[in-house]
Amino acid sequence: DEIGGEYGVENGVVAGEEAGEVFGHQPLWAKGLEHVLAQLREAGHNLADVAAISGSGQQHGTVYLNSQAAAGLAKLDPARTLEEQVQAWLARPTSPIWQDSSTTRELGEVVDAIGRERFFELTGNAPFERFSGPQIRKVFRQQPEVYAATRHVALVSSFMASVLAGRLAPWDEGDASGTHLLDIATKKLHPELLAATAEDLESRLLPVAPAAAEAGKISPYFVERFGFSPECRVILFSGDNPCSLIGLGLLAPGQAALSLGTSDTLFACTAEPRRSWEGAVFASPDGIHYMSLLCKANGSLARERVRKECGFDWTEFAEALGRTPPGNDGAMMLPYFVPEITPKTIGPVVRLRGFAAEERDRYCRAVIEAQAMSLRIRSEYLGGIRAITATGGASANKAILQIFADVLDCPVSILETTNSAALGAALRACHSRRNAAGTKCSWYDVAKPFTEPLATVQPRSAAAYTEPLAQFREFEDEFTGA
């Protein structure tokens, strides 16, 4: 929001005119990249020392590039900003992103063409409006002139890698898993899914590549403008979810993490693609494992909403949690202020049971317990959770973590960084470059120094949730049509 005022950005995004539409602006992302690099240089970091760079892009967003994009990337002018140069490459000025839930019709058309069970078998995922394929179909159906002008469809991750490398970068396997276009078993784009999504889509896509692949050397633009070495390599970017898997050190089956961000996700490293109608599965950037994930759209969005309605700051919010008992004396809520992913809701569903919103302390605990219990009910899909590493903004709040530790009945650890996606991208760059240079190193060698826990919250009141979990399941089922 700090640099996006002229784009109408609020909470990092722009709302569209149609219900459920949420967009991002590619020129703003380019501006943000330059802003970060300038800050690093001004802080005294010598960017010439950077041997490799990778990144994390918000998953499920799509970018529509015209026929000028490839040439424009190859001839970036250091005398001009990225922001102004990017504008000329776009077949449409905005990108639908993961929060966009406006593609119900398009998703239904794809599923009808493939068959629901076949769709599930191929993608490994239940049909989700927020995935990239339905976004592409919506552009194809509603804006045929835009689709006709689109020479390449990029993901957020591949678009940013393309900018840094000065050439079109492939989708990586992790982010491509979140498109409804990838065969999860082969990790390749599937012709049935492509054909059902849009005409002549395959010609607009680059081949999917392993996350460790290089997009190329860094563009001369960044050498001249920011002082990078011309030998710096750009490793394919991946999605924020797969990058978080690496950034949290989840490199073996059974390891799990809880990301408390705009959306809340509970995810684990698995040996095989575990399928669930309520979960999602992505390829891990380690090239070996998979990532099984439960995602709730109403994460910090719901916590912030309740905190503001109560008139609390975050310290006061935490104090309110401390004044209320585990189980909240039976007070419960469904905090789905925007359409929810897990469990799926068509629209907002906000219900209170056993209390009123004016009871501010109970209101605060109710939103956190609802988020934790909803995930606990579905957590068996992840293959058994022994311990959890927490990340995301709310992971700094130990009162919130205590509720999750109690409800999930396992220890919750926190790391030094709360931005596991960015750390994971950096570790991916390190691992890829070291191995490409002949220095054999394992994922464990690269990740361990950065993923040791700073502190661990132990469950204290797990038994108090036995009955509330059963009651919450019934409450949620009643209003979500489960």
Explain what this protein looks like in three dimensions.
By secondary structure, this protein is of the alpha+beta class. Helices cover 39% and strands 16% of the residues. The protein contains 19 helices and 21 strands. The strands form 7 sheets. It has a 7-stranded mixed beta sheet with strand order 15-16-14-13-19-20-21. The radius of gyration is 22 Å and the shape is globular.
Write a brief caption for the model:
The chain is α+β, with helices and mostly antiparallel strands and 482 residues long.
Helix and strand layout, with pairings?
Blueprint (H helix, E strand, L loop, with lengths): L13 E2 L6 E3 L1 H17 L9 E2 L2 E2 L4 E4 L3 H6 L7 H5 L8 E2 L7 H11 L1 H8 L8 H11 L1 H6 L2 E4 H10 L7 H4 L5 E2 L4 E2 L1 H7 L16 E4 L2 H7 L6 E3 L2 E2 H8 L8 E5 L3 E7 L9 E4 L6 E7 L3 H11 L3 H9 L9 E5 L12 E5 L6 H19 L9 E4 L6 H11 L3 E3 L5 H17 L6 H5 L7 E3 L8 H15 L2
Parallel strand pairs: 3-11, 4-12, 13-19, 19-20
Antiparallel strand pairs: 1-2, 2-6, 5-7, 8-9, 10-11, 13-14, 14-16, 15-16, 17-18, 20-21
Helix pairs in contact: 4-6, 4-10, 12-17, 13-15, 14-15, 15-16, 15-19
